[in-house]
Structures are given as structure tokens and as C-alpha cells.
Design brief:
By secondary structure, the protein is α/β, with parallel strands linked by helices. It has ten helices and twelve strands. The chain has a six-stranded parallel sheet, with helices on both faces. Strands 7-6-8-9-10-12 form a six-stranded mixed sheet, sandwiched between helices.
């Protein structure tokens, strides 16, 4: 019997021994060996639902991928893949020797957990989702923190008493951010009315514009979105009707003269940290929540439109953001 097997058997005995009435220190499953360090160059693939030039959801993930390439000297590849093609793409990258495959979105979580069982030497991680295996897991970007602050501004400043949320696909991750926006708006103004629309598409510009115009027609004068590559339709409607908008995922303040602030994901740090764990053979499948405290989420006011936000509201936003970072304010989010 090899020394490694003897050592592992001893660890398992410790686990069993610590499971009884003795409250000694138990060995976590995370202390057991799962992977091994990568020899040679790390290979990392990124699957996105849209073009990485979308100035939003897919673009921010690509920035994270490029940070892995720069900081770790990794070989990287990006591919736009969705729906029925997801599993084949994951399987293909694993067969080509990629040690890490990142699927950027909730829709990649289930396929990742399934394909991971076929390729134990590849780690599969999705941006959002709740399924895990030994070599697959997910990031939960706590974007709800930024959406809450946007909602607070909207609730404080709305003249109509109505605010809007425009989504693309109706998926749990988007619904969770919308609930946080609504919570922020109601914290600022308990009587605020929140209008919600979904187009069902990541990239249909016309549908995004139509849904936004409908929400505006119903009275919304501050709106936020999760429309991904269709964001131009969202902003176009806001500009046409001269109402205020919030950017999402990326800092979109420069995309529209009506964009008053943006709830932003900063993927670089968590992506590099993930790739480092894989490179060192230390990754274990888990759901990791990363937000403002980890430098993964931010809320950025548009400096050109600062005068459009009341000074007392800006002060409240600063205090709220500080409270979030300090762990004194917990923003609501769904579990999925």
C-alpha cells in the first residue's frame, strides 16, 4: 500500500473520529486532495452568450480572461456559445487539454456539472448557478449590491413614482438583481411602483427598445436593464423619451447621455484567483459569492451627470456603499 493511500486512510479515520461527541477539529472535505498542479502552461477557455464587444455582460468576462492571460501567462480562448451547443463546446475544450472552462452565465451551470463528470482533470465554472461537483462550481457576482444602490437613487428622485426594469432572458440571476433594485427603490420610497419587462432575448435590440418604451409609457422615469448585447435598444428608448437610465455589468456611463450611473462587475480579480487555484491544483467545486468586499462589484456615478443627482442623495449613496463594504448592510438576493 502506497504512503499516499495510507495517509489518506488516516485522514478519513480522523474525519470519522471527529463526527461523534468529541468536538475536536474535523478535517474538511476541502482538505482532501482533488486536483494536481498544472505542469506547463495553463489553458483557459471562456464561453459567452454574446459577442465580447457588447460593452456589457460578455465584455466584462473577456476582460477577466485577458487578466488571466496577462497575470498567469495562460493560453486562453474565447467562444460565443449558447443553447444546445454549450455541452459540445465544453466537451471539445476539455478534450483539447484545457484545464479550466468558464461559462459566463446561469445557463452554463447545469451543463458544466454534467460534463465535469466526464473530464475530472478539467475544472468547469459558471458565472452564476447553484450546482456543484468535485471539479465544477460557480461564481455568484453580488451585482445585487449595485442594483440596490441604483434603485435607491431611482426611488428618491422619480417624479412619477414609477421606475422600470428591462430584462432579456427571464432567468433567476436577472430576477435576483431586479429584486434588489426594487428593494432599493422601496427603501427610498415605500410607495414607489416598480415596472418589470422581459424580452426573452440577449441580443434583440428592437425588442429591448420596445419593452423600454412600454415601461416608459406606463410612467417609468428611471430605468435599469439586463439586456446584454441589446443594450443599444434600451438606451435609445431612454434618450428618445428623455428619461434617466442606469448601466449594468460594465461601466456604461459613456454609452448614453441619459446613463446616470452603472452597477459594475469587475471580473479580473476573481477570475485570476480562480485560475490560480486551478493552476496550483487547489480548486474544489463550490459556489463563491464575490461582491464589493472582494473588489468584484462597484457602483459608479456618471461624473458628467453628478448635478442631476441631489447632493443629499449622493451622500446617502456613499454611506450605503460604505455600509455594504463594511458588512453592515446586507442586500437581498435570491438563492438558486
Amino acid at each position: 500500500m502506497s504512503r499516499w493511500i495510507i495517509a489518506l486512510f488516516a485522514i478519513l479515520l480522523v474525519i470519522v473520529g471527529c463526527s461523534g461527541g468529541d468536538k475536536g477539529t474535523a478535517v474538511s472535505v476541502k482538505d482532501l486532495p482533488v486536483g494536481k498542479p498544472v505542469e506547463g502552461k495553463l489553458k483557459v477557455a471562456l464561453l459567452t452568450p454574446g459577442n465580447v464587444n457588447d460593452s456589457g455582460w460578455s465584455a466584462l468576462a473577456n476582460r477577466g480572461l485577458l487578466a488571466i492571460e496577462k497575470d498567469l501567462g495562460a493560453e486562453v480562448s474565447q467562444q460565443t456559445t449558447k443553447d444546445a451547443a454549450i455541452k459540445d463546446a465544453m466537451r471539445s475544450f476539455a478534450q483539447d487539454g484545457y484545464q479550466l472552462v468558464i461559462g459566463h452565465g446561469f445557463e452554463y451551470n447545469g451543463p458544466a456539472a454534467e460534463i465535469a463528470k466526464e473530464f475530472p482533470n478539467t475544472v468547469f465554472v459558471s458565472s452564476s448557478g447553484g450546482e456543484t461537483t468535485a471539479n465544477s462550481g460557480a461564481f455568484r457576482f453580488y451585482l445585487e449590491q449595485g442594483f440596490y444602490l441604483a434603485g435607491f437613487i431611482a426611488g428618491k428622485q422619480s417624479k412619477t413614482g414609477k421606475v422600470g426594469m428591462i430584462g432579456g432572458p427571464d432567468v433567476p440571476s436577472i430576477r435576483s438583481t431586479f429584486k434588489a433594485f426594487a428593494a432599493g427603490a422601496k427603501a427610498a420610497n415605500p410607495s414607489i411602483e416598480v415596472i418589470e419587462k422581459f424580452t426573452g432575448s440577449n441580443d434583440d435590440v428592437a425588442k429591448a427598445k420596445q419593452a423600454t418604451l412600454q415601461a416608459i409609457a406606463e410612467g417609468a422615469d428611471y430605468l435599469i436593464h439586463q439586456t446584454n448585447a441589446a443594450v443599444t435598444g434600451f438606451f435609445s428608448a431612454c434618450e428618445e423619451k428623455n428619461v434617466w437610465a442606469f448601466g449594468a455589468n460594465e461601466d456604461q456611463n459613456k454609452l448614453s447621455p441619459q446613463c446616470i450611473a452603472s452597477a459594475v462587475i469587475l471580473a479580473e480579480k476573481p477570475f485570476v484567483a480562480l485560475a490560480t487555484l486551478v493552476k496550483e491544483g487547489k480548486y474544489h467545486g463550490e459556489i463563491q459569492l464575490v461582491g464589493m468586499q472582494e473588489g468584484a462589484v462597484d457602483f459608479v456615478l456618471n461624473p458628467l451627470l453628478a448635478s442631476e443627482i441631489q447632493s443629499e442623495v449622493r451622500e446617502e449613496i456613499t454611506k450605503l456603499q460604505a455600509a455594504i463594504i463594511a458588512g453592515e448592510l446586507t442586500i437581498p438576493k435570491d438563492e438558486f
